[in-house]
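Encode chain A's predicted structure.
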Amino acid sequence: MIKSDLCENDSLLENETSICKEGLNNETKNVSIIDPQQPNQRSRLILYFFIYLIGVSILLPYNIFISAYQYFVQHKLKFVDQKDGTTNVYQDYYISYVGISVQALALVTAALNNFTSLFNRFTLLQRIKISYIAAILFCLISIILAIVDTSNYVFCYFIMTIFMAFLINGFQSILQCCTFGYIATLDKTYLNCVNIGMNTSGVVTTLLVMLTSAVFEKNLSYAGILLFSIALLITLIAFAASQSIPNTMAYKYEINKTKVIKVSQKIDNEENVSLHHPYFKALVVFLNFNLFALLGSLLASVYCSQNDNFYLITTISRILFLPLALLFNLSPKETRFIPRLIKSDLMFGIFVSLLAISNGYILSGAVMMIPENLPNKIKGSSAMLAGLVILSAIFLGLCLAFPLNYLSLLENSNSANLII
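Encoded structure for chain A:
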C-alpha cells in the first residue's frame, strides 16, 4: 500500500516537472521571439552616420544664408552703379531681415507641428520627406538665381531671398522637430547624434563658403553656383539616408528593444587677425563657434549630467557672457558708441569658443536628458517640444539684432553730422 502511494506520488511529480519544463520552454521561445538579435558594430555605425547626415542637413539652408555673407551682400545685393566702399539699405539690413524671417515662420510652424492636428495627417517620416523636397527645391532655385544677373533687380532679388529664407526655414523647423521626435524612441546617444550633426553643419557650411570663395575669388556667381550645388548634393544624400533609417538592423533592434521593455514593464508593473580681413568673420566667428559647439555636443556624449540643477545653474550663469561681449565691441570704429575695452582678437576668439562649447554641451545634455526618464508614449513629443524651445531662443536672440543694428547706424549718422 505504501509502495503504491509512493509510486503514484513519483508519477505525479514527474508529470508536474515535465509540465513546468514545457512551460519554461514555451516562455523562453516567446521571449526569444520578442527579444531581437543584437546588431553588430557596423550596423550601429551606419545608423549613426545616417542620423548624423540628417543633423548636418537640418541647418544647412540657415547656415548658407548667414555664412555666405560675401556672396549675398557684396555681390548679389550690390547695384550696378554703386561705388566701392559704400553700402545700400539692403546690404545694411540683410542679416537682420534674414535672421527674423528665418526664425519667424520656423517658430510658428514648429508650434503648429507640435501642438495642432494640422500636421498629424502625416507620419513623422512623411513630414521629414516633405521638408527635404522643399530643401531640394530651394537649392535648385538658388542655383538658377546664382546664374542670373540680378544687379538691375536688387529689390526683387532681396524680396525673393527673404521670402525663400522665410519659407525654407519653416520646413527645416518641421524637419528639426520631427527628427528629434523620430529619434527620441532610440537610445539617447542617437538623439545627441542629431545635435552633433547640426553643430557640424555650421563648420561644413563655413568651410564650403571659404573654399568656393577662394576658388572663384573674382567671380562670386560661380562661387554661388558651386556652393548651392554642393548643398544640393548633401541634401539629396541626407534625404536618402532619412528614408533608409527604418531598414537598418540597428533601428529595428532599438524599436524591438522598446517593445520588449514595454512587455517586461507590464509583467513587472585685434592683435592677431585684422577686423577687415575677409576671413575674420568666417574663421573667428562662424567656424570657431560651430567647431566648439560641436566639441560641446561631443563632450555631452562622453559625460552627460543627470542633475536638473546643473543645467539651471549653468544656463543662468551664461548671462555673464552678455556684458563680456560689450567689452570687445567689434563694431567699426566709426560706429562705436561704447569704447572697445578688450582689444585682443585672441581673447575674443577664446570668448566665442567658451560661449560655443557651453552652448553645445548644455543643449545636447538637456535634449538627451528630457525624454530619458519619461514614458515611451510621450518621449517623441517631449523631444519635439525641446526643438521648439531651441527655435524660440534663437528667434528671441535674433530679434535683438534689429534694435542694435539701428542704434549702430543711428550713431554713425549722428557722428557724420557732427563732422559736417
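The two ends are 129 Å apart (CA to CA).
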